[in-house]
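Progress note, project year one: complex with coenzyme A.
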Amino acid sequence: MFHFFATHVRDAKLRDLEDIIRLGSEVANSPHWTREQYQQALSPTDIPRLVMVSEGRVQQRPEGQTTDIEGVMGFIVARTLGSEWEVENVVVGDQFKRKGLGHLLLACMIERARRENALVVRLEVRACNAPAIALYAKCGFQQDGRRKNYYSNPTEDALLFSLLLENAS
Ligand SMILES: CC(C)(COP(=O)(O)OP(=O)(O)OC[C@H]1O[C@@H](n2cnc3c(N)ncnc32)[C@H](O)[C@@H]1OP(=O)(O)O)[C@@H](O)C(=O)NCCC(=O)NCCS
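Model obtained:
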């Protein structure tokens, strides 16, 4: 149980690379990106992307001992292609799950998309990924498609979700 929990969301920097890679490899169900893919996402390339991290501090007091944990607790990656954004990856560290961080990261990304005049945010997710599907539904995404056997290892359908933004006419 956390005694103290404080976090904020900011744009990621190249110096966050190791934390992002660590979280991406530790958390089950997170899309398995390579170091190069994360590095590219954090660097200017032909494909514009926005990476944000939730960073903060928690204090635990198990059995009278105080433990401080400070640093990156989750991250989100989106392709920012003009009016159409696509969330590619959202990951929260196992010990920080169900504390609203996934929701906060997604809400900050959506807010940025709105400010930058995007009209729609899209994403796809494994059909069995119930926590992610529940998170997307909570953030207002609606399912608008399904790709049969889209994923491999294991083979599974992808569910397609989108969120139309308020500035969309
Ligand atoms: C999906 C994920 C990002 C959610 O992060 P989180 O910080 O735990 O989510 P939040 O605490 O913000 O939860 C927001 C809402 O999502 C839903 N939700 C999150 N985890 C859930 C779970 N395990 N079971 C059911 N609903 C869940 C709930 O509706 C929740 O609202 P509530 O707590 O008021 O009930 C996290 O579970 C994760 O990192 N999963 C592994 C990586 C992954 O699958 N990413 C998505 C594909 S890229």
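The chain has a mean pLDDT of 93.
The two ends are 45 Å apart (CA to CA).
No further modelling is planned for this target in the current period.
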